[in-house]
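Quick one:
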Amino acid sequence: HLPAAYTSQTCHECGAADAASRGSQAEFICVACGHAANADINAARNIPASGTDASARRGAFASATPATVKSIGRLKRRRFSQRYNSLSLPTKRRAARQLPTTVPDVPK
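Output:
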């Protein structure tokens, strides 16, 4: 049973609870596993798993809006950039050699 007060600090993927995972009011990046998501969506996913009565309220959480989906995409791209920039130069070169040099034809 997860206390309702910690649903916004708990990772929906791995279950780790840490206040440092909340970088800002809108973003959640787990310090244990690296899972990135919109903070409200992450907390909403934790509520049914917590067994609290908050999940029984009608309309407690709206479905994802286009703006929310867009912000999640930005978080994922930022997280990828951070990981890529932390790689050494030989690792980046090795990864670049593995990329396809041509784009395959798409049937019409």
